[in-house]
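Structure ticket #2291
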Amino acid sequence: MRTRLLASAIGLPVLLFGCGAPAPSAPVRQSLAVRQALHDPSQIDAALLAGVRRRGVTGIVLCLGDRAVTELDRRAADLVRSAGLQLGYWLEVGRSVALANARPDLMASLQGHREWRQAVASAPSPGAGEVVKAWPWLPVAYREAFDLHLARVRRQLVELPVAEVVYLSDLQGPPSSCGCGNALCRWATDYTLHGAPPLRSAELGPPGAAARFVAAVRAIAPASRVIPVWVTECEEVDRNGPCRGVGCYHGACWREFDKQWSALVGECRTVALLLPHASFGRPVHWPRAAVEHLRGRVGNAVRLIAVVEGGSDPIPGVEVLLTRHAAIPQGFEPRIVHVPK
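Resolution: structure written out below.
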């Protein structure tokens, strides 16, 4: 499988600092009901744990990404437990640099709208038998990617102490999945316009891949609560902003989101929403507005956990997981991949 890197990475405001690197400091509003804090294992020591307990935090979630487990990770988990705090793990699923480099054929493509190119003016167009892929996103909707991600998550969990909660991040498609350029658009893998057949280098599995993945991880870690992490989708006001003129909100995006959400909540009664306002280029009130918007569409039957940055407005009735101390990368680079006949 031949790959060719496009001229530059797409300039999305959602690019974060990498799992383990502290995000920019922001004051934590006292009115936020912070119950859990996301940290890189390298940050964990007795002084930090004593400090979070004084602030009323009851759980530490260790950001492990998609990498192999180390002795440092196990030591951090033991320290969290010894401090009397709830232990959690944040595991990356659909975004994997190592796997994308090894298996570019399993990456999602950008074959629909071309508006994402406004952020990468020098990006060349694919030639015959080529397609633009969103590196390093390999959605679990692809049959083989599902199996590879699950095998990696199994290895991570087998090598770690049992945790009370396991978060599974990026179970959807890549950002800008329809090609609009909006980082919140995650519903597609190989979207094309007007019914044109997609140029596909990976086989899709059955519908409801995210829900099936959560169920499979539950079987691996039956003593842990397994919680999917979800991105909410675009907003009507995004048309002339992040959607770059594409009518996503009244198009297929929310209809497809609703289908995937229904499958997910059929398996999960708790869902974490990824809502870092600054990293997504949104105002401080956006997480609350996004939760209210989602509840207006899907009701209140599902318990929500808001994954936010410091400085966010409070969200009534929603537990908060603070990401200020370890960020979750969400950007992508467009790369050209040759698809064999």
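Closing remark: The chain is about 25% helix and 20% strand.
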